[in-house]
Amino acid sequence: MEKLWAGRSETKTSVIADDFNSSIRFDSRMYRQDLNGSMAHAGMLAKCGIISAKEAQQIIDGLTDILDELESGALVFDPGAEDIHMFVEQVLTERIGDVGKKLHTARSRNDQVALDLRLWMKDSIAELKTLILALMKAITDKAEEYKSAIMPGYTHLQRAQPITFGHHLMAYGMMLKRDVGRFEDAAARMDESPIGCCALAGTTYATDRLWEAQTLGFSNITENSLDGVSDRDFCVEFLSACSVLMMHLSRFSEELILWSSWEFQFIELDDQFTTGSSIMPQKKNPDMAELCRGKTGRVYGDLVTLLTMLKGLPLAYNKDMQEDKEAVFDCFDTVKMCLSVFIPMIGTMKARTDKMHAAAQKGFINATDLADYLTKKGLPFRSAYKISGQLVAQCIRENTVLEQLSLEQLQQYSDLFEPDVYKEISLETCVAKRISAGGTSVSSVETQIRSLRTWMQQK
To answer: How far apart are CA 106 and CA 120, in angstroms?
Structure first.
């Protein structure tokens, strides 16, 4: 395939250099955005009288045919093409002749690729947002199911206070809500079209950049042509939002891995999302959660790749920027895959509420409530705290829990203990009393679920 930039050079580039320079093997996935962008560009050229309406229609019809054939598989990408832009223009010119050569008037591959990438990322953000919302629905449904299931809440990975499993799950729902916001913010800032910036300095033609931008669904244009072709902030923001999302999925994965272990036995993941061992028949490994945890590092690497590539580039376009697409595409594919497996993995997860409740009892996480009980009876808190600690120590020696100590045993430490103590220190009471907004009581968790579902319905 003849280079469309041929003319300046007297000798051909080497085969090795051509292969090194080519991006068709990965930027071909932007063919829809490239073709749609070219159709809008042809329409703008005709609107401004730069080409005739008839020529524009020939170009648009030719591009439409190319799009249809690529979609159907009747046309395949030429691996010898330098990039998707040159492939499309070459095919178009072969089919409609010199009229096809007019398409590239008042634009450059520099602004064209920036346009294609923005269009592709807007579509990709919408796709990821749909998946995140689906995961949020799975989480809220599961939180509703287990809104009253008592489990130990942890700090320092030590049992701390009683909470409900629904409350714990809703924490991840709120994280994902912020993730949606980050993607929306990124999409809003990339909602400017760079097409018409040309190579770096704009064009001598009287074009209508805003019309072309709005035709393509953008609300505005980039206001500086140098910035328009060299800006990749929108890629960095996208990768950053993906990285934070993956961090949340990784933290969730870590807990799923812990909870499904024999040491916890808090949950059971469905067989569809676990694997076995080739040598140990008893194993049920949470490999999907582990892979999501591991792939988080891969997404972080994509972000660092882009930041490092950009940090030393002078204005405007440099070939280094070709490296943006592989990082962006890999990040998107990885995040999409992780979300796609996470949604049904959470949807089919079952909680072992008996194990959770037993762990909450064994953790003495109602010891503070026991001290509060004595304090309300008039005992100074420090004295009550000491008695509570002594009772915990006795329970550990006798392999029992606070609720199972007899009233006589309790009264050996303080005559303030009365029969009502058992209701006050029951785990159900400890949870039910935490009615503050955002807390772990059933009513508070129900409020959180309603709030998040209402928010989701507006998206």
So the answer is: 22
